[in-house]
């Protein structure tokens, strides 16, 4: 059947899903091969029989983690009746970034961006692509709100999208570094204000 995975595909998926949280918490450099073999119960040969390198596993883990966040966000955006509420989804989803719905270790974009900066250009590029994709989605929602008559027509769409991302990611970084989730709540209030100010 079409939805049935081959044994090799199932093994790859198992490795990715089992190690995704480890990479997200410990980073690429901090994750050892023994971490992967211990978590999966597989041998080094089995892991490298499915992936060319640790970096390839890390990339797949990053894509899996960011995919989880995108899927959760997309489902909530789809249900939201107005463009204002669709944009507010980002504040709500990231407000709960420590919940069971989020990848183990928190936001994969933040974690991987810090970990890969100046040390792993391939992972850094994956983070850049994720941010560009996120920015484009926010821009589409703002443009949808303008077209629908919900938002002001003179909105600087690109600046607003980047500002939202910067506040969300920065708020999570501050909350994580200070071990004070309330700091993220404070920053997300600014995200709420920015979105509300878009309204006609």
UniProtKB/TrEMBL annotation:
Record's InterPro entries?
Homeodomain-like_sf, HTH_TetR, Tet_transcr_reg_TetR-rel_C_sf, TetR_C
Q: Which keywords fit this entry according to its UniProt record?
A: DNA-binding, Transcription, Transcription regulation
Q: Where is the HTH tetR-type domain?
A: 9-69
Superkingdom, natural source: Bacteria
Q: Membrane among the record's keywords?
A: no
Q: Does the keyword Transcription regulation apply?
A: yes
Give start and end residues of each DNA-binding region.
Answer: 32-51
A Pfam family of the record is TetR_N
Q: Which PANTHER family match?
A: HTH-TYPE TRANSCRIPTIONAL REGULATOR LMRA (PTHR47506:SF3), TRANSCRIPTIONAL REGULATORY PROTEIN (PTHR47506)
Q: What is this protein called?
A: TetR/AcrR family transcriptional regulator
- Species, as recorded: Mucilaginibacter sabulilitoris
């Amino acid at each position: 059947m079409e939805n049935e995975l081959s044994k090799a595909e199932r093994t790859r998926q198992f490795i990715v899903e089992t190690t995704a949280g480890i990479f997200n918490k410990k980073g690429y450099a901090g994750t050892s091969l023994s971490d992967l073999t211990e978590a999966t119960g597989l041998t080094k040969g089995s892991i490298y029989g499915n992936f060319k390198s640790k970096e390839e596993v890390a990339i797949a883990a990053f894509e899996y983690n960011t995919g989880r966040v995108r899927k959760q966000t997309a489902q909530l955006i789809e249900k939201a009746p107005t463009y204002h509420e669709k944009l507010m989804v980002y504040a709500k989803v990231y407000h709960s970034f420590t919940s069971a719905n989020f990848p183990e270790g928190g936001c994969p974009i933040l974690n991987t961006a810090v970990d890969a900066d100046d040390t792993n250009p391939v992972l850094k590029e994956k983070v850049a692509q994720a941010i560009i994709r996120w920015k484009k989605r926010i821009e589409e929602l703002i443009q949808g709100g303008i077209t629908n008559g919900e938002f002001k027509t003179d909105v600087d769409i690109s600046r607003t999208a980047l500002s939202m991302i910067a506040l969300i990611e920065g708020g999570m970084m501050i909350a994580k570094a200070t071990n004070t989730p309330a700091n993220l709540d404070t920053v997300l209030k600014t995200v709420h204000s920015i979105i509300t100010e878009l309204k006609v």
